[in-house]
Structure formats: structure tokens, C-alpha cells
Amino acid sequence: MSVEVYYDDDADLGLIQGRKVAVIGYGSQGHAHALSLRDSGVDVVIGLPAGSKSRPKAEEQGLRVVTPAEAAAEADVIMILAPDTAQRALYAEAIAPNLAPGKAVFFGHGFNIRYGLITPPADVDVAMVAPKGPGHLVRRQYVDGKGVPCLVAVEQDASGNAFQLALSYAKGIGGTRAGAIRTTFTEETETDLFGEQAVLCGGAAALVQTGFEVLTEAGYAPEVAYFECLHELKLIVDLMYEGGIARMRYSVSDTAEYGDLSRGPRVIDSRVKEEMRKILGEIQSGEFAREWVAEDEAGRPNFAKWRAEGAAHPIEETGQKLRAMMSWVDRPITETA
Ligand SMILES: NC(=O)C1=CN([C@@H]2O[C@H](COP(=O)(O)OP(=O)(O)OC[C@H]3O[C@@H](n4cnc5c(N)ncnc54)[C@H](OP(=O)(O)O)[C@@H]3O)[C@@H](O)[C@H]2O)C=CC1
Ligand SMILES: CC[C@](O)(C(C)=O)C(=O)O
Ligand SMILES: [Mg+2]
Ligand SMILES: [Mg+2]
């Protein structure tokens, strides 16, 4: 099955320049969308609650900040970039009362629509522009004249022009410089959750920590274990990123490649694949979404406990010491680019 990919020439920036856009939330994605849209000539207002700690950042960067309800009332396109777990209440309290026929509600991830936590009225457009990368990279690429590829989807096309509007928004944040792929809310949500749980965040973090534990428990120096299991991972992933797994195998030694081919499938074996299928099943059935919403409503007890355990893992202390020796590695997270 081939996908439809859209580039700058397929998108009309004038569509989004002709609307007022409210960006609700000013975190990783929010700051990137808002600053890049503004730099693309779009009229942007930021919606944040009165006590939000993001308010000073947005104001320092020259953006006008009002409450989410005020932003939703004055805007034609309302992009919701608050945390997924905050969106349901935010929508009910601040956005739904301020919708009118012809307006559009946009998302950066399909979670709340896919799992029925938000159901906009039939007379508004509902679309998604989901960059396939962290917000700080989205902004950095835009500033550098490049872009992060985006997924674009339409859930509800009340105007008959929702896809073109979403594509125009994607152009405003640099997404169509790299390519915008047309998808659905269901496909984006399910694959995004699977990727972050099984491979990118959950799978990769557990693989790194477990490799580090095996080496240090066997008596090897934590510093050496850190280099082998975490630091060099970036160098290996960079090769995969540039030219696929084949490029990585071309670059490493034959000894490494033989070890990869003969031992890799023993680490990620059929049991792991079966567990990945179970994780996908929990995403598709809505079990993960129900669990995460309940965890959030209960005050996130497990989340806080697991986060603290992760932060206390010995690999973090070792990494802190080593990164201090490599000034080019320990880069601060900047809020603008
Ligand atoms: N992180 C990423 O790179 C990616 C995120 N996404 C999606 O983008 C969306 C935003 O995620 P992300 O950028 O990580 O979020 P962050 O946690 O980085 O930022 C959330 C922002 O929303 C604000 N906020 C919190 N509660 C409310 C509320 N009730 N009303 C209005 N604003 C609120 C926060 O303010 P305060 O500072 O006061 O807490 C903060 O400015 C999510 O749907 C996520 O799935 C999609 C692709 C990648
Ligand atoms: C991989 C994590 C992500 O899905 C992302 C940056 O794309 C997220 O939700 O933050
Ligand atoms: Mg993602
Ligand atoms: Mg995600």
C-alpha cells in the first residue's frame, strides 16, 4: 500500500495565513508550532491557564497569551497542544463553548479523538498535524530552513476544505518541506503509541538499562558499560537513520555484524515479539487508553513511582559524570530552537 505524500508546492500557505490560530499549550510541540507559524506570517494567539508556568516563556518570545477560553473564542483554528490527559476537560470547559460553525479543531496526536474522549460538533472541521519528532527538533529544523515530516489526517470535513487547511498549517511549521503523509486519526494514534511503548522509548530504554545491568553485575566498570550500552547507541542509530540497518551493518566491523546477525534475534526473540503483539492489542482495544486515563485521574501514583525508579537507576549517575567530560554531548534543552 503506498501513502500519499505532500510537499510545499502542494500546500497553500495563504489558507492558514487567512485564519487566526489559537495554540493551546506552550510545551514541546506548542512552542514549536506557535513560533514557526508566527514566523510564517500567521496570526497566532496562545491559550494557557492563568497560573501556567509556560506563560512567561511565551510572552518573552513575543507572543500574546490569553486564557484557553479567550483564545478559542477569538480564533478560527484551535490547535490543542496541551498534554493528552488534560485535553478532555480543557475541551469541555474552554473550547466546546467557544466553537461555531466554520471553525476548526486541530490536534498534534489523535489520542482523545481515537478513544472518544472528545467529540466535536458536526459543523466544525477536525484535523491533525502530527510532526514525527520532538517539538524542539521541529522548531530547530524550521529555523534551519528544513522540516520534520508530519502526519496529516482529517476526522471531520465540515467545510469541505479541511485537508487543504491542515496541509497549509503543516507548511506553516515546516512539515511540507520534508513531506506530509496523509493518514487517519486511528492509524496515527495506534502506531504512535505502539512505537513509543515497544520500540522508541519503552523498548529502547529497557534494552539499554538491561544491557548496562548485565555488564555491571558481571563486574565491568559502569563507565565502560555506559559507553557500550548508551553512548554508542546514538552513533549506531545515526547510521540507521542515514541509510537503514544495511548502512549500519556496512559501517561496523565484520565481527560486530556477525554478532548482530547471530545474537540479535536471541535478545529480541519470539517471546518479545509476542509481547509486542499484546501491547499492540491493548492499544487497539482501548485498554491502554483506559488504564492511562484512570492512572492520571488517580493522581499518577504508578507513573510517579516508575519515573523516580528510572531516575535512580545507576546508569543515570554514571551518565551524568561522563557527559560532564564531553561538553559537546550535554546540551541544554532550549525552548526556542
Ligand atoms: N512531545 C512531543 O514532541 C510530541 C507531542 N505530541 C503531542 O502534542 C501534544 C502536546 O504534547 P507536548 O508538547 O509533549 O506537551 P508538554 O507537556 O510539553 O506541554 C504541555 C503544555 O500545555 C500546557 N497545559 C497544561 N495543562 C493545560 C491546560 N489545561 N490548558 C492549556 N494548557 C495546558 C502546559 O503548561 P504548563 O507549563 O503550565 O504545564 C504546557 O505549556 C500531545 O497531544 C502529544 O501527544 C505529538 C508529537 C510529538
Ligand atoms: C516518541 C515519543 C512521541 O510519540 C514523539 C516525540 O513523537 C511523543 O509522544 O512524545
Ligand atoms: Mg510520536
Ligand atoms: Mg506520542
Lay out the secondary structure.
Elements: E1 5-6, H1 13-17, E2 20-24, H2 28-39, E3 43-47, H3 55-60, E4 65-66, H4 68-74, E5 77-80, H5 84-95, E6 104-107, H6 111-114, E7 125-131, H7 135-143, E8 150-156, H8 162-172, H9 175-178, E9 180-183, H10 185-200, H11 202-217, H12 222-251, H13 254-267, H14 270-285, H15 287-297, H16 301-311, H17 314-325
Parallel strand pairs: 2-3, 2-5, 3-4, 5-6, 6-7, 8-9
Antiparallel strand pairs: 1-9, 7-8
Bound molecules: NADPH dihydro-nicotinamide-adenine-dinucleotide phosphate, ligand LWWEY6Y5 and magnesium ion (MG) (2 copies).
Report on this model:
The protein contains 17 helices and nine strands. The protein is of the alpha/beta class and 337 residues long. A nine-stranded mixed sheet has the order 1-9-8-7-6-5-2-3-4, with helices on both faces. One magnesium ion binds next to α10. The site of one magnesium ion has 3 residues, from α10.
